[in-house]
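Lecture notes, unit on binding sites. The following record was shown on slide 14. It pairs a sequence with pyridoxal-5'-phosphate.
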Amino acid sequence: MNANFDASYPTSHSADNRYVHGLDRQYVFHSWAQQGSLDPMVIAGAQGCRVWDYSGREYLDFSSQLVNTNIGHQHPRVVNAIQAQAASLCTIAPAHANLARGEAAKRIIAKAPDGFSKVFYQCGADANENAIRMARLYTGRSKILSAYRSYHGNTGSAIAATGDWRRVPNEYASGHVHFFNPHLYRSEFWARDEEEECERALTHLRRVIECEGANAVAAILLETIPGTAGVLLPPKAYLQGVRKLADEFGIVLILDEVMAGFGRTGRWFAFEHYDMAPDLIVFAKGGQLGLCTGRWRDYL
Ligand SMILES: Cc1ncc(COP(=O)(O)O)c(C=O)c1O
């Protein structure tokens, strides 16, 4: 049992695993799951990298919940900041100016590459939706290219941009085209090494752009490091190659850093490992909520 486990924690005073599990099974609908066969693990509290249930049984949280507790659970500075903010102002409409919102945006921009100027506060899937809309409005084009090995969220365009199996029954948004991203272990390109995989994946992407009509493509949307698809590190030169293709054809490059961003790869943004920068960065999870805008000064 964790030494910090506090049996008097308000949510645990009268609850036990059986009661919480029963409540969940009776009333809670879970995402992306066949409801009838679910048997969720009960979690009563957490500290750092550990979580525990109501009996005090402790587990290491190897998945950081949904890969979002980048600095661990219940960091005292985060808890204090949330408590202080809740005591002064719990909510604010988008139209107003607010110290915390402005300060957070200023600090995020300080970490972003040169030319990034604004933060648009969103949830992960919403941030992808808005990045897609911005790219369409900015270019006057409609198609969005994204990878088969990807997840971008469960809303209209975000799930249509997603490559994995969850897209197929949910494809109601139009204008989405998919391509194969590099993954040497299960190469779609019969490649023998990383260099070959990279070169062939870039040739494939060029062909997809040409075949879809370069003047019709608004954006390429990629997870910098695909996460849900299996933590697939792209070949070193791949993202630079995608950047070049986007520039050549006037396509907006959106990097989804919802899972990989905000320190998870050892840098603030995962694309910093690849000596390139996108036009739009999408982040959420460990990076709170948001979307950074890049080369948009004239437009904004
Ligand atoms: C890469 C990526 N993009 C977008 C999302 C969607 O974020 P959210 O669930 O906060 O809407 C996720 C969620 O797992 C993700 O991993």
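Take-home: Residues 66, 123-125, 128, 151-153, 223, 227-228, 256, 258-259, 284 surround pyridoxal-5'-phosphate (CB under 6 Å).
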